[in-house]
Amino acid sequence: MLEQFPHPILLAHRGDLANAPENTLPSFQQAIQKGADGVELDAKITADGHVIVIHDSTVDRTSNGKGKVASFTLNEIRKFDAGAWFNETFKDTRIPLLEEVFETVGKDKLINIELTNYSTPRDGLVDKVCELIKRHGNQRQVIFSSFFPSNLKRGEHLLPEVPRGLLAMPGIAGIWARSFGFMFGEYQALHPHLSDVRREQVQRVHRLKRRVHVWTANQPEDVARLKDWGVDGIFTDDPAIALKALGRGR
Ligand code: G3P
Fold first, then answer.
1. How far apart are CA 241 and CA 96, in angstroms?
2. I need a labelling partner for 221 at 20 to 30 A (CA). Which of 135, 138, 147, 195 fits?
3. pLDDT tens digit string along 150-197?
4. Ligand 1 pocket check for 188: Cβ under 6 Å
């Protein structure tokens, strides 16, 4: 499935994050309109079991609400304005359902779903996400990623055909994930931080016949260097700038 896309694939990190409120429908729409190959998003679950898209474990930074995501029902969390904090023009934007993003992005773009129940690891998020993917029949456009191997293991059990990317923290914290964790795990891709990527590392992963998807490259020179090193995917906050640096600009 990933082979059908240009190399490297360009994934808009939380949508067009540099130009729209992150992880919202306008952000994802703008990213696709600008030509990204797909979007990256952060999946979480509400107190009443709905899968929504938001990065932080609280709503404080990216809405006019206050409190833990896991403490709100869908109706409660949908009352918050998730756009005006970024810019008044996005006023009344809501925290989206994962299913709304599926509909907005359409079937011919990639969706990297980061499974981010890091503060509520037993909340059943992976099972709910897999249920929604089966219902929408979009297994072929989805990638799972997570810093938690347990989430990816569950994803492998429920939807083995969906590629899995192991996220590695920057620096020392990510040494295990970038080495033994990835090497001996059933992952199709390593998702290292930009600061940890080296040409030799890319070559080593390629010798394993696996992929490297790097987060998050925003400077044209970084994007061009990663392309030169042969990485297979790049996450970016500004797809228009990154596409230009890849020679795919409009
Ligand atoms: O998936 C790439 C990147 O989004 C991982 O870091 O903090 O944005 O979830 P974070």
1. 26
2. 147
3. 999 999 999 999 999 999 999 999 999 999 999 999 999 999 999 999
4. no
Closest residue to atom 6 of ligand 1, CA basis:
215
55 is catalytic: yes
Residue 66 Cα to ligand 1 middle (Å): 22
**DSSP assigned state of 237:** S
Q: How remote is the CA of residue 243 from the centroid of ligand 1, in Å?
A: 20
Say yes or no: CB of residue 167 within 6 Å of ligand 1.
yes
Tokens representing 20?
A: 């729209």
Neighbours of 96 (CB within 10 A): 23
Best of 11, 17, 44, 55 for a ligand 1 pocket test (most atoms within 8 Å of beta carbon): 55
Catalytic residue among 13, 50, 191, 213, which? Answer: 13
> What does the DSSP assignment read for 10-66?
EEEETTTTTTS-TTSHHHHHHHHHTT-SEEEEEEEE-TTS-EEE-SSSBSSTTSS--
d(CA 210, CA 226) in angstroms, rounded, equals 16
Q: Is position 13 annotated as part of the catalytic site?
A: yes
Q: Which two tokens stand for residue 236?
A: 């970016």
16: tokens are 């067009």
Buried b (16+ CB within 10 A) or exposed e, 155-170: bbebbeebbbbbbbee
Domains of the chain and CATH, by start:
2-57+96-245 (3.20.20.190)
pTM of the model: 0.97
User: Which residue minimizes the CA distance to atom 2 of ligand 1?
Assistant: 215
